[in-house]
Design brief:
Strand content: under 5%
Shape: elongated
Number of domains: 1
Distance between the termini: 36 Å
Oligomer: single chain
Number of helices: 3
Radius of gyration: 17 Å
Order of helices and strands: HHH
């Protein structure tokens, strides 16, 4: 969730296309991750069995596992790109 916060901070500090894209991607990933986490915690259609369901995983188990695993990595990447975008010197175009 730090990646989401950094993406939104970047959009506030530097309102440009890159910051807006990072905020949209970070927000979408953050919402998807929260929904997967809630599905896992509430045992929605056995979503919490994504770690030990192979080879007969349902679609919800596959989506929950992929979102919680890869979504976390992508949010971290969005955070790193947001910090890099903030550190980069600001150039105005004419």
């Amino acid at each position: 969730m730090t990646g989401l916060a950094l993406a939104v901070l970047t959009a506030i500090v530097r309102p440009n296309r890159t910051a807006a894209l990072l905020a949209i991607v970070g927000g979408t990933l953050g919402i998807a991750w929260i929904l997967a986490w809630v599905a896992e915690r509430t045992d929605f259609h056995d979503a919490d069995g994504w770690g030990d369901c192979w080879p007969s995983c349902s679609a919800i188990q596959t989506a929950t596992g992929a979102t919680l695993t890869y979504g976390t990595l992508l949010l971290a990447f969005v955070g790193v790109v947001s910090v890099a975008s903030l550190v980069r010197p600001y150039r105005r175009t004419r």
